[in-house]
Amino acid sequence: MMDLSLASIEIGLACHSLIYGARTKGLQTGFCRCLDWDYEYSDKIINALGIDYIEQVQLLMGVGI
How far apart are CA 29 and CA 59, in angstroms? Predict the structure, then answer.
């Protein structure tokens, strides 16, 4: 298994940039880390995102009005 600590730092920095840019445009932002990996529609999420298993989702971020 690979060490995800560097990837997590990179993802955090990218999200910070996205949030900063969105806020300067007047958009609201938010993070969600409360992931329900036993969600009954997990298979649909896996197919839509093109991933192998639901645990690959580590961060959800909302951007909008």
Answer: 13
CB 30 within 8 A of CB 59: no
The Cα angle at residue 45 between residues 60 and 12, in degrees rounded to 5: 20
> Quick one: how many helices (H) and strands (E) in the chain?
2, 2
**Considering only CA atoms, which of 5, 35, 29 is closest in space to residue 17?**
29
- The pTM (predicted TM-score) of the whole model is 0.57
pLDDT greater than 90 at residue 26: yes
Amino acid at 65: I
